[in-house]
Amino acid sequence: xxxxxxxxxxxxxxxxxLTTTTYGKQEYCSSxxxxxxxxxxxxxxxxxxxxxxxxxxxxxxxxxxxxxTFNNLPQxxxxxxxxxxxxxxxxxxxxxxxxxxxTMTGPTYDEIQSCFSSGLNSSVNTLLxxxxxxxxxxxxxxxxxxxxxxxxxxxxxxIFQSYRNRIHSFRRWWxxxxxxxxxxxxxxxxxxxxxxxxxxxxxxxxxxxxxxxxKMLRIHGLGNFKDLLRQVTFGPAMMxxxxxxxxxxxxxxxxxxxxxxxxxxxGVNNYNQEDVVAASKAFTGYVTNGVQTNYDFDTMxxxxxxxxxxxxxxxxxxxxxxxxxxxxxxxxxILEQDQxxxxxxxxxxxxxxxxxxxxxxxxxxxEILRSNNYEIKPALEFLFNSDHFHDSTxxxxxxxxxxxxxxxxxxxxxxxxxxxxxxxxxxxxxxLGMQMFEPPDVSGWLGYHSxxxxxxxxxxxVILCSLITGESPFGNYGSYINVSSIAQSLYxxxxxxxxxxxxxxxxxxxxxxxxxxDSLEQRLLDILLNGAEPYxxxxxxxxxxxxxxxxxxxxxxxxxxxxFQLS
Length: 567
Fold this sequence. Notes:
Elements: E1 17-23, E2 26-34, E3 37-40, H1 49-60, H2 93-103, H3 109-118, H4 120-127, H5 153-179, H6 186-196, H7 201-204, H8 207-220, H9 225-233, H10 236-241, H11 255-262, H12 273-282, E4 295-296, E5 301-302, H13 305-310, E6 316-318, E7 321-323, H14 327-335, H15 338-352, H16 359-371, H17 376-384, H18 402-412, H19 424-432, H20 456-469, H21 483-490, H22 499-511, H23 518-529, H24 546-560
Antiparallel strand pairs: 1-2, 2-3, 4-5, 6-7
Helix pairs in contact: 2-3, 5-18, 8-9, 11-12, 12-14, 15-16, 16-17, 18-20, 20-24, 22-23, 23-24
């Protein structure tokens, strides 16, 4: 490694100095750290041994305490997380914000305060309460299939276009549910299962099938994983997406069998190719027309000529067990494996906690899942009530996924009733890399750092700021933001501090995954006041007053900050 310049920095705040280096007779600051952000003044050459060691260590240990010298780096390749060993969660407003930011879309300041006042256990119970189904996105969800053979080319083209439009309206419908949700996990857990059991409308084709699967995820998302897995497996969307439909004993398709084990239940290296072949034979003879399937959920058997003619009724050896297995038998055998619960909990952990898995904690969580016969809710109760989940190491450690970032911001700005065009959310989701009902592949979205790149990061800021300016790249969506009503809703005369100070502090709590620093709070106040005194800031000035333009400027400034991207 080597230094690549002839100057050094002198931090205003000496507390951020992490390391110093002596060159000749000159000692100077060579690295700084603030919270989970650090910067170094040397170049760790990637082609060199020491540089590679540093890069590898930093990649595998993003949350460790970096208060050490670079010539003394640990050699361990295992992730190291600073996890407190407290037996009780320290329940604070920041802890309440962390819980809500991971379990729902765009928690507001009032929701965070309500969560804090209710306490941890009560809040978790509220979040996990089962919700009824919302109104359908349209009558089309129950529409029968067209008689394709009787239609002209023009009529077929019109149906194709109507199907595309229905998917656009479907995305808007779900986005609106996210923007109008109460304090509940339903939308977030449904989104998780959509990522877990990823299917795409471009291949599934029928919007009715996509809605059927979405409805299954809502109904069973906090229920029993066994039921959820069967419902998804034998639903039209998955049968089309992973080629179950049409697989026959003469030519078994291995696609679903492989993904069932790798993505949905066991994970890599917990099965072999012989298991894939056996499972693929067990899943022959199941057929769908795009709306209905020939799987009977009551008897858990296939039916019809396709079943009798196409299913392989011969003995098969799968995961060491031999018999005339059907697809349902394969699922039962998988669920008997200890690794199945571990795999599910690994995925839940990565979604709700952090990308680097704590194997010991996941093992405890998996035992909860197994001992409760794969009921999902007890495992989530264990997770959200644990001191592990609430360790401050994880606060602000994730990058918000694009869909929840946009809808959550709209909700916090009280703009959920705007007249958004039908394609508004489709276009945004596509531009930011998370288009609902069109995942990039069978494994869903990578998430975490993959949300941010040279294209998406600037565009995130453009889209967020367009909510303030009304100048969206995807068209006009109605009336503009009412910043005076936002400010008035955040002020409490019984609390300490000027109105402008309360507004800044409360917006910071709602919008940022990390707490406001004193310097950032002052910077936001400076934008808001523009030289005026705090007591000059009046909540009840008319909407056209310049004061509200300054508040819009401050909101845009907040949205451009890296902290705004964190959850």
